[in-house]
Amino acid sequence: MKRLSIFLITIALITGMVGCGGAPAVTEYGLTITSTIGGSTTPATGTHTYDEGDVVDLVAEAEEGYCFVNWTGDTDTIHDVNTATTTITMNHDYSITANFVEVAVYSLTIDIGPGGEVTTPGEGTFLYDGGTVVNLVAADRGDFVGYRFINWVGDVGTIANVYAAETTIIMNGNYHITAHFSKYMVSAAVAHTVGLKASGLVFATGLDDDGQCDVGAWFLCNQVSAGGYHTVALFDGGDVDATGLNDDGQCDVGGWTDIIQVSAAGWRSVGLQVDGTVVAAGRNNYGQCNVGSWTYITQVDAGWGHTVGLEDDGTVVATGYDFSHQCDVDAWTDVAQVSAGGHHTVGLQDDGTVVAVGNNDYGQCDVGGWTDIVQVSAGWFHTVALNNDGTVVATGLNNYGQCNVDAWTDIVWVSAGAGHTVGLKADGTVVSVGDNDYGQCDVDDWELGGMMIIT
Fold first, then answer.
1. Distance, CA of 358 to CA of 337 (rounded, Å)
2. Is the separation of the CB atoms in 146 and 428 below 8 Å?
3. Pairwise CA distance, residues 124 & 107, whole Å
4. Using DSSP, how many helices (H) and how many strands (E) does the chain show?
5. Is the Cβ–Cβ distance between 103 and 128 less than 8 Å?
6. Looking at the whole model, is its pTM more than 0.85?
7. Phi, psi angles (nearest 5°) of residue 268
């Protein structure tokens, strides 16, 4: 009996050592998941039990208006804490958190200047999450003959290249931008006239005693402006050049950069920069170059002794010679374009009407009855305006016939000089009337609309 008992005890001990299933017990660990506001997780928030060594899939899904940031907590075995979809290996008990943040939503408002369109994303206001990189594509429109893309203006701080028709903008704030297009154009001065072809080449005719007509080497121009005895040109990329009389430094514009518009008059040159500020060079005896404090400017124009600037809210600023009150523009509102003449200033309003201040000895400010106007130009003692039907009106001194524009049709641009007026027709040809003592009206053979390949 004693031997039997010993045998049974031995069997029991052996059985206990081996175990019921023949395998060691499995260790289990707990995974506790929490989430900040703005998203959910898989597995869901709470505590889940897994065997040691299990690889658990983790998925964080953000709600609308939020984005996933990272996983925090016991993250030593999480494959990638910065990825919303990742894994964790269960080697211990773990407590982790999926973190979400609210995404700022910003608006991008896109306007389009005459002559083109924005195909991507289009015209209007669009909403994007903060940090989104938005493609911008501007294109010429076939029904606007002669126009080409120049640059993006407005809130352009995060645009990759403001001079590229295809570029990007990073949405770090609310932005309002405009695609700016330009076309062939003409500019009349005291005794010379300058024309810009659609190809970017420049023509000039008239008085050339100071080299103001030496423009033959200029190409890839975006805009030209004829001053008293000098000429200024704006080129692709925002650089500026000038030729002609430089006794007051009015041609010292070589260091200007990021310019989107130029204006020349008298003995002065003015440039509008892409950030809405203004630079000036030349004679400043009346303070006509005191534009350093101007901001949010969308257009500038230089007169004989004064300078005017159009602000982005439709108001106007002016500086310089004010003997005839040509700078009294503080009360103007809803202005779309400004033009500074010899001793007067003209403003085109949003509704197509026109306002004027300054010297009116010859009726150059008698514009109160004009309607349906799309462009204005102030000369020395006369004013011309383009109607929306392509006809032209004029008022003021007419001693050289500079106001004899009643018969003009199909006009797309006008420019008033000292004693002559020039008009650009839709087909790219040019017409002129008025003083021609120096050949400034010899534009009959100009054809500015035709394209030319530059090699």
1. 17
2. yes
3. 10
4. 1, 35
5. no
6. no
7. -150, 150
Hey, is 75 helix, strand or coil? Answer: coil
Q: What DSSP state is assigned to residue 14?
A: H
d(CA 38, CA 106): 19
Work out the angle at residue 241's Cα, subtended by the Cα atoms of residues 437 and 402, and round it to the nearest 5 degrees. 25
User: In the predicted model, is pLDDT for residue 268 greater than 50?
Assistant: yes
State whether 173 and 36 are in the same domain: no
Of 102-111, 174-183, 195-204, the one with minimum mean pLDDT is 174-183
Which tens digit of pLDDT belongs to each residue from 38-65? Answer: 999 999 999 999 999 999 999 999 998 8
Domain membership of residue 381 (yes or no) is: yes
Bridge-based pairing of strands 28-35 and 94-102 is: parallel
**CA atoms of 118 and 136, how far apart (whole Å):** 7
Q: Which two tokens stand for residue 197?
A: 């072809």
308 and 410 both lie in a single domain: yes
Residues 6+ apart with CB under 8 A from 379: 188, 341, 342, 364, 396, 402, 416, 417, 418, 419, 421
Query: How many structural domains compose the chain?
Result: 3
Residue 306 lies in a domain: yes
CA dist., res. 440 & res. 14, Å (int): 121
Coil/strand/helix, residue 402: coil
| Of 84, 102, 120, the domain-final residue | 102
Check the CA dihedral 448-114-413-221 and report its sign.
Answer: negative
CA distances (Å), origin 254, targets 138, 241, 283? 29, 6, 17
**The two structure tokens encoding residue 323:** 């003997």
Tokens of 305: 């002794």
- Label residue 443 left, alpha or beta by phi (over 0 means left) and psi (-120 to 50 means alpha): alpha
Which single residue is written with the structure tokens 């010429």?
Answer: 140
Question: Can you tell me which residue has the tokens 């790219």?
Answer: 428
**Domain residue limits at 53:** 28-102
* CA distance readout (Å), 366 to 100, 243, 345, 361: 64, 35, 12, 10
The residue whose two tokens read 């006809």 is 391
